[in-house]
Design a protein that fits this description.
The protein contains 14 helices and no strands. By secondary structure, it is mostly helical. The protein has one domain (34-301).
Length: 302
């Protein structure tokens, strides 16, 4: 027979109000719930970001120091092999800084998108064991990508100091605006793709192909002036400039590439960046609402 104490506890439990375990589905209520849940789990987000960074350099003697070597070697290759030996500097001044600035911006977009897309599937074990706001995992992947971006940015800034072309002018503010645009666009797409990948694993391979196409569709190893000369401002050029990645990378290059001050840039570049950033922020919200609708069966599907 149940004791008086057990009966009292049971009665106590039954008197408690029922609490819904799943997030609310309303557009406003659901968004508010998700934001509050992420704020409450900010310490967990920080721990997951640290785990992502440590996992990349696991069992390595030098650890995070390796993150400095790759961009340094990359910069030297572009400066010596491509800029000097292949003569790229004849058409693009200080080619190494130009292309490395583009690669730094591209690397931010690439790592956020790829990391966020795979974040739910790669954390399947944790998702099956305990309920957490699922957005935490794409967010942690984004934090890890921001760390790597910061390291590469330090190398880029150091290169401009060595060459005596420090980008401390008003144009420098284009760089953070460009990075913000790329970050918001990559996170919006990555958040959406992370949910789709749970149900369609081919999405991982599609993203790899998409990233390859987007790399060459952006002015990273060639300047915008070549595109303008080829398209002469027609509708194809306007389609080219409608790509947030293109505008974000050009904004970052304009902020960091002092030698490109007199180069051709799209008209009203700052306005384009501002409008696209607002659109991408709205896209983040839309992606999160789609994510919230799909996350209910994550544990069963993975």
């Amino acid at each position: 027979m149940a004791s008086t104490k057990d009966t009292s506890v049971l009665a106590d439990w039954r008197s408690q109000p029922l609490v819904e375990a799943t997030p609310p589905r309303g557009l406003i209520a659901g968004t508010k719930y998700s934001i509050n849940a992420l704020i409450q789990q900010k310490d967990l987000v920080r721990l997951l970001i640290q785990r992502e960074i440590k996992a990349r350099y696991k069992d390595s003697a030098l650890g995070v120091v390796w993150s400095l070597f790759r961009p340094l070697v990359q910069l030297l290759i572009f400066y010596v092999a491509v800029g000097k030996f292949l003569g790229a500097e004849r058409s693009i001044p200080e080619f190494a800084i130009f292309v490395f600035a583009g690669l730094t911006a591209w690397g931010l977009f690439y790592e956020v998108l790829q990391g966020a897309t795979n974040s739910i599937v790669s954390n399947a074990g944790l998702i099956k064991k305990v309920y957490l706001p699922r957005e935490i995992f794409p967010l942690a992947a984004t934090g890890s990508a921001l760390f790597n971006f910061g390291v590469q940015f330090i190398v880029l800034l150091g290169a401009t100091i060595v060459l005596g072309r420090i980008p401390f002018t008003l144009d420098f503010f284009y760089a953070p605006l460009g990075a913000l645009l790329l970050l918001t666009f990559a996170f919006a797409i990555g958040l959406l793709f992370s949910a789709i990948t749970v149900y369609l694993r081919d999405m991982q391979h599609l993203v790899e192909v998409l990233l390859l196409v987007l790399f060459w569709a952006s002015p990273i190893v060639y300047s915008y002036s070549f595109v303008h000369k080829l398209l002469q401002g027609n509708w194809l050029e306007q389609i080219y400039l409608a790509n947030p990645i293109t505008i974000g990378i050009m904004g970052f290059q304009r902020g960091m590439w002092i030698a490109g001050t007199d180069q051709m840039w799209p008209a009203d570049l700052a306005i384009r960046m501002g409008i696209m950033t607002v659109i991408c922020l709205a896209l983040v919200w839309w992606s999160q609402r789609v994510f919230a609708k799909l996350e209910g069966n994550f544990a069963q599907e993975i």
